[in-house]
Amino acid sequence: MTLYEQAPLYLELPEVNAIVAHAGIKETYIGRHDKKVKSFVLYGDVTGAFHQDGRPVRRDWAQNYHGDQWIIYGHTPVMKPRMVNNTINIDTGCVFGNELTAFRLPEKKTISVPSAQPFINEKFQYFD
């Protein structure tokens, strides 16, 4: 609990021009640490609506990111790392049976290892 309560909302890594945030971060939120930023970083860009299975509907905030810093995030499991506009979602659903993924900078390379957990397809977000 101490780690959770005292950890920063996001990590700034100027040596590789990157920010690590659990569910991502909007460019205008970088440098801020208020309640609005906390909600976004922890839960993503939620709309207030819900899918039939109870998951919150989230906007694809990465489509509108145009910053120079890399944003490395997860929270929404995807089958393969998803790069959009200097953002990368590396949550490849290890706990749901897919892979555990890391992103290396400055190389801009991903490394993934398979999970030993049973695969649960409905836990993954699929983008067109």
TrEMBL record:
Matches recorded under SUPFAM superfamilies: Metallo-dependent phosphatases
InterPro entries: Ap4A_hydrolase (IPR050126), Metallo-depent_PP-like (IPR029052)
Gene Ontology molecular-function annotations: phosphatase activity
GO cellular component, one term: cytoplasm
Identification of the protein by name: Bis(5'-nucleosyl)-tetraphosphatase (Symmetrical)
Protein source organism: Lentibacillus persicus
